Amino acid sequence: MESNDILEELLNIEVEIQDVQEQIRALIERQENLYERKSELSAILEACKESGKEASNVASSAVENWSGPFDWDSEADDVRLNVFGISSYRANQREIINAIMSGRDVLVIMAAGGGKSLCYQLPAVLRDGIALVISPLLSLIQDQVMGLTALGIPAYMLTSTNKGDEKFIYKALEKGEEELKILYVTPEKISKSKRFMSKLEKCHHAGRLSLISIDEAHCCSQWGHDFRPDYKSLGILKTQFPNVPMVALTATATQRVQNDLIEMLHIPRSVKFVSTVNRPNLFYMVKEKSSVGKVVIDEIAEFIQESYPNNQSGIVYCFSRKECEQVAKELRERGISADYYHADMDVNAREKVHMRWSNNRLQVIVGTVAFGMGINKPDVRFVIHHSLSKSMETYYQESGRAGRDGLPSECLLYFRPGDVPRQSSMVFYENSGLQNLYDIVRYCQSKRQCRRSAFFRHFAEPLQECNGMCDICAFSSEVKEMDVSGHAKLMVSFLQDMQTNDQRSTMLQLVDKMKVKQKELGSELKREEIEQLILHLLMQRFLKEEFQHTAYATNAYIAVGPLAKQILQGKKSVKLEIYAEQRTKTGIRSVKRCLGSSGLELKLDELRKELSCAHGGIFPHSVLSTEQIILLTSQKPNSLEQLEKVIGKLKTEKYGNRILEQIEKYSDFKTTDKQETVGRDAKRSKTKKNLVLIESSEDEE
Ligand SMILES: Nc1ncnc2c1ncn2[C@@H]1O[C@H](COP(=O)(O)OP(=O)(O)OP(=O)(O)O)[C@@H](O)[C@H]1O
Ligand SMILES: [Mg+2]
Q1: CA of 89 to the centre of ligand 1 (A)
Q2: Is the bond leading into 69 cis (omega within 30 degrees of zero)?
Q3: Which single residue of 83, 337, 518, 657 could bond 363 by disulfide (Cβ 3.0 to 4.6 Å)?
Q4: Catalysed reaction per UniProt (predicted)?
Q5: Predicted local confidence at residue 234, as pLDDT
Q6: How far does the centroid of ligand 1 lie from the alpha carbon of residue 83, in Å?
Q7: The three-state (H, E, C) secondary structure of 356-414, written as one string
Q8: Which ligand is nearest to the CA of 147?
Q9: Contact 341, 444 (CB under 8 A)
Q10: Which of 81, 84, 86, 398 to mutate to test the pocket of ligand 1 (most atoms within 8 A of CB)?
Q11: Which pTM does this prediction carry?
Q12: Predicted local confidence at residue 229, as pLDDT
């Protein structure tokens, strides 16, 4: 054997070893994920077996009966209705409140908008002393404090900017002389301010620390989607104040995150309440995204104008800051009141946009993910993703900003394969970044599987009915399978040749090359179908993405994947799913029954805006929630007593007369209007000698 041959063989073996190592690495990663998933699924199965319960209340591990009766039942009901203006509890709220009132530590997993705040705010009002609430963002805290103040509950926040409040708060903690019920702080206060901790200890020592609440608790865990290092130090709270009930709340936590939280916060004996991740009021839909930017904006604008003509609030999420500015501008050019929000803006400008939107003076915020956790607006009617999120978890969170008031809302995701490399080159260095991205790509590509079921599967929860609340379940479009094994083989072997020649190809370049190459097969796929095929092969690990840094960006290339041999050896057939016929034109079904469908609703909406300005700039939804407006419109109370039953004493005292005045005015107007109609129609019937049937039009015109 000549030394050249030996060298060549050595080189080949080296390459093959690298290839095998790569496959082993990929398989080990896959194995780890499968183990994790397996343990999650087993845990959930156990929980289901134990409780014998259905999915609607998945895993309340509580053995005790937390529904009651308890001594504080009637007082709690009174505060719920007359202070918070809430007419009945939602799932698990009563039980959580009872567990906290009984002095237990509690872990709450409840979907976005499920009503977690009430679970600690109500016990905070009922229990003697001061409740401490840890929350990650100032904007969230401001929102909560403003809302509680509007309800007459003495709530404050400790920030470095307001020294006046600081003095007051320290006095309240130390001496108990001032009126303070709920104190909000960011976790930095616990980890960094010795002074604060010493005041808190004094408060506890005097028996005045009523409970500790840790909101957005997933921030504690580095396995959560939004880990914050300062949350790590919160373990000290249970050590210092062991007898004070602690409640940790979050919208999403996998089994792993839940275990992490219990350990980090030192609450091993906590009562756990896990509610379903299902958001039955949200309609999920994936839209094929045109490669022409203008067409996408036209579609989005048309959707907003047709479905939400009364300025109902929405969010459009974009990939980059530049894209946010561009999309906002183009929406404005199409007559939609929209503005952008991203991390590059200065704080004041950002706050201004947020405020205009929260006060319903701006319809649409076009934001990056920076516009995320701080949003507390309950009546967001639509969330549109101009490009895909980086994982199922973040998509669930972001789309979950819609419909927190429980009313029907829509979540649209515009997807095209070309957006995938943009995301993958951002996430590939994160822990399981690519894996998470590919999960949401599968969600987008799916043409048969209910969107909702993908969430259940992701969060390891038993399936529930979708009730036609996603595009797959709502529209019956026939799906065909197309055998593209020949194209797949051609693509993989072509990439292999390129790699042998030290060449690389991006997704776009590969599509161009395949357009030409596929002619040899005599069967041509469309551009979009080739893109779809590339993604399909990526998801199955027949191909893989590789990344290279340049001075300005990270480029994503398509390369031969660990399982490519199966394609090359013809062991695997590859099929693409395609719609047999075009789906409906815009494809968007309106899930209406929100504000603006009747005259009185609009009048009450205007009134809440006016009252919110008059009462020190609180948000309109703090005056009346959309749900309350809908109730008032259907029940039309005509006395303060009747009104109280719908919105509670406090709001009735504050705004009752104006609300009744408006209802009365509108009813008068309707009656006059009806009488006139009767008159007109009577005349018409006289002249035409016809019987005219006048139906009660109610408010559902
Ligand atoms: N029992 C109830 N009946 C009617 N509305 C309620 C009830 N409980 C809470 N709400 C309302 O639902 C909305 C969402 O509540 P909340 O802010 O507590 O949600 P959350 O679970 O903390 O959500 P997120 O995870 O997004 O923070 C608020 O407008 C709140 O007033
Ligand atoms: Mg919350």
Answers
A1: 10
A2: yes
A3: 337
A4: ATP + H2O = ADP + phosphate + H(+); Couples ATP hydrolysis with the unwinding of duplex DNA by translocating in the 3'-5' direction
A5: 93
A6: 15
A7: HHHCCCCCEEEECCCCCCCCCCCCEEEEEECCCCCCHHHHHHHHCCCCCCCCCEEEEEE
A8: 1
A9: no
A10: 86
A11: 0.78
A12: 80
Q: Which residues of 235-274 are buried (b: 16+ CB within 10 A; e: fewer)?
A: bebbeebeebbbbbbbbbbbbebbebbbebbbbeebbbbb
Separation CA 48–CA 336 (nearest Å) = 47
Is 133:213 a contact under the CB 8 Å cutoff?
A: yes
How far are the Cα atoms of 350, 361, 509, 611 from residue 606, in angstroms, in the given order? 25, 11, 54, 9
**DSSP state letters, 479-529:** EEEEE-HHHHHHHHHHHHHHHHTT----HHHHHHHHHHHGGGGT----HHH
Q: Which residues contact 390 (CB under 8 A, 6 or more apart)?
A: 423, 426, 427, 433, 436, 437, 440
Which tens digits make up the pLDDT trace of 101-159? 999 999 999 998 899 999 999 999 999 999 999 998 887 888 889 889 989 999 999 97
ipTM passes above 0.85: yes
Which residues have C-beta within 8 Å of that of residue 267, sequence separation ≥ 6? 105, 107, 238, 246, 248, 261
Q: How far is CA 520 from CA 238, 490, 505, 524, 566, in A?
A: 70, 9, 20, 9, 22
β-pair type (543-549, 554-560): antiparallel
- Three-state DSSP class for 465? coil
Distance CA 292, CA 639 (A): 57
Contact (CB, 8 A) for 317 and 338: no
Q: CA dihedral defined by 32, 37, 38, 43, rounded to 10 degrees?
A: 130
Residues 6 or more apart whose Cβ sits within 8 Å of residue 154: 179, 180, 181, 182
User: Beta partners for 410?
Assistant: 283, 382
CB of 359 closer than 8 Å to CB of 612? yes
Tokens of 654: 């504050």
CA neighbours closer than 13 Å in the CB half-sphere of residue 201: 10
- Centre of ligand 1 to C-alpha 250, Å, is 13
Phi, psi of 384 (to 5 degrees): -110, 130
Contact 169, 183 (CB under 8 A): yes
Query: Computed from CA positions of residues 264, 267, 268, 272, in that sequence, does the dihedral angle turn out positive or negative?
Result: negative
Name the phi and psi angles at 285, rounded to 5.
-150, 140
252 φ, ψ (degrees, to nearest 5):
-140, 135
Instruction: Please tell me the distance between residue 683's alpha carbon and the centre of ligand 2 in angstroms.
Output: 58
Residue keyed to tokens 């993910």: 369
Q: State how far the Cα of 661 lies from the Cα of 636, in Å rounded to an integer.
A: 11
Contact 420, 387 (CB under 8 A): no
The string of DSSP letters for 532-584 reads HHHHHHHHTTSEEEEEEE-SS-EEEEEEE-TTHHHHHTT-S--EEEEESSPPP
Residues with CB under 6 A from ligand 1: 86, 89-90, 93, 110, 112-118, 251, 376, 378, 404-405, 625, 627
